[in-house]
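FAQ: What does the model actually see?

It sees only this:
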Amino acid sequence: MVEAPETAEGWYALHDFRSVDWDAWRDAPERDREAAVESAEQFQNHRERLAGSDDGDSAVFTVTGNKADLLFVHFRPTLDELDQIQRSFEATEFAGYTEREYSYVSVTEVSGYVSDEYFTDPEAVDEGLRRYIEGKLTPEIPDDTYVSFYPMSKRRDPEYNWYDLDFDERADLMAGHGDVGREYAGKIKQVIASSVGLDDWEWGVTLFSDDPTHLKDIVYEMRFDEASSKYGEFGSFYVGRRFPPEDFHAYMAGDAVPVPDEEKATGEHHGHHNDRAHGESGHDHGEGGHHGNDRAHGESGHDHGGDSEGSEDGDGEASLREELADLDVYAGKPHGEDVYAVGLYSEADLDELEEEVAGLAESFDHYDTHEGTDVYAPVDGDGPAAVVSLWETQSAADTAAGFLADLPDVTSRVADPDDGWGTMGMFYTVKPDYREDFVEKFDAVGDALAGQDGHDETRLLQDTDDENAFFIDSRWQSKADAMAFFRSDAFRDTVQWGRDVLADRPRHVFLA
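And it is asked to produce this:
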């Protein structure tokens, strides 16, 4: 018998496609239509508000074409919750004006094709890859996004039978398939959910993107991949656009959704005016990648609250940030940096690593939450290079971590919790004439740090594309130890000295 890869399951998914009985809608009294729309808005707002980061997600989309009018998507930890959601919708006044055209039930899944080690030795799995896998099992839905959904199965014909192939053959084909997907990092976020034993096809695929042409392009390009061209079978495709629940009035009135912000502010759209702000669903999605978010994905998975010294992380940390601000050093926002960082160390050949990272960065640049991905090499030439990727949202960073984990010869992540508490990073850009002075100053500060309580190690690395841009990874036993140094006269003197040599304001990003 051919070996079946192991699988791990996450959230259950319900795709509920509805058509509107427009004749009945036009014939209904205004008060009945108003009550129906209000019931739809309340139903969906309730679903989205209940969907916290640990409890699932929900969204409603338009559907373009004649297959349906609306798509309700729900992700929940249990199948029972989806069943209850389905029945709750039927109890609304709005449901009386709709018919279900199609539905799909599935469960998010990762398999041994993604990481065999995740099943055989989970403790050894790189943290970045672990966050990527967890993001696939517990996905979030981007706020303002287009959607494409389709079911698919693997072919079981006499000539091309996917299930007759051995594991290595299937793994190689899936790796090639994944290479195509990686080209769309930052453009597409995808949710792959298994429906074997749950629905008529084997998987339900949901793609999200800010640009609908990306939805076409990725499916088109993958059609030429052998895993699809020989072994893929596909059902109907559904495409649409997400809109917030408060725009149901505009949708039913035939107006544009999402309602443009300027119309929402003035109430100019023809639908019912609503005082709620756009996105009042209670979610702060970011998005994601191949498919964030934003799991708070730069939701880097770090607990900014720290450990037992938590009292220091509240008013004490806010006070420290104010002190740094007085020195014109940006230290992020309390308990929520302006960026989310992913960092990995690699012992690969530097030229090879730069080439790989350049390809990823080019793909990442298509996503507007990407701030930059760079390679940093040790100034003293000793030790591995670092790859640091900065994102505006946690979910985007978490998605990026999955791609970065595939870089060659990765040895560890920056600020690994096993190494204590790390401060990542300290980012400095130096005026060209002062580069050597900056390196000498770092050496002097490094000597001082060697005797600092709670300090483990501090590394200075420079951007391989800009010798005047530096990244410092400073590792401490606790946040309190690091804060004590930041409050010290030595650090204050260093910052004052840096006013003459730095090209712009230094940025510090705290990670636990």
